Amino acid sequence: MQPHVTPGSGQPGENPMPKPVGPQAVPAHEDERRPTSKWLILFVFVGISGLGYWLWQKQAQVDRQAAEVRAGVRTATAQTGSIEKTIRLSGVTTAEKFVSLIAPQIRGSRSGRGRGGINLQGMESASVATLPALGGGGARSSGSSSGSAAAAGAGGSVESTGGTAARSFGGSGATRAASSRVASSNASGARSATGGGGGGTSSALGGEGLGSTSRELGGGLGNPGGGGGQGGGGGGGGDFTLVLQNLVKPGTIVKKGDTVAEFDRQYMLQRLEDYKSTMETAKAQLAQQKANLELARYTHYQNVEKAKAALDKAKLDMKTLPVLSNIDAERVKLSLEEAEAQYKQQLAEGKFIEQQEKAQLKFAEIEFKTLEMEYKRSEQNADRMLAKANIDGMTVMQNTFRGGEFAQIQQGDQIFPGQFFMQVVDPNSMIINATVNQVDGEQLRIGMKARIRFDAFPGLEVPAHIVNIAAVPKSGGMRATYVREIPVRLKIDQMDKRIIPDLSCSVDVIMLEEKEVVVAPLAGVFSDQETGKRVVYIKQGEAWNRREVEVGLENNLVVSVKGLAKGEIIALDLPPSSNPETNRG
Question: Is 79-91+427-584 a domain of CATH 1.10.10.10?
Answer without folding.
Answer: no
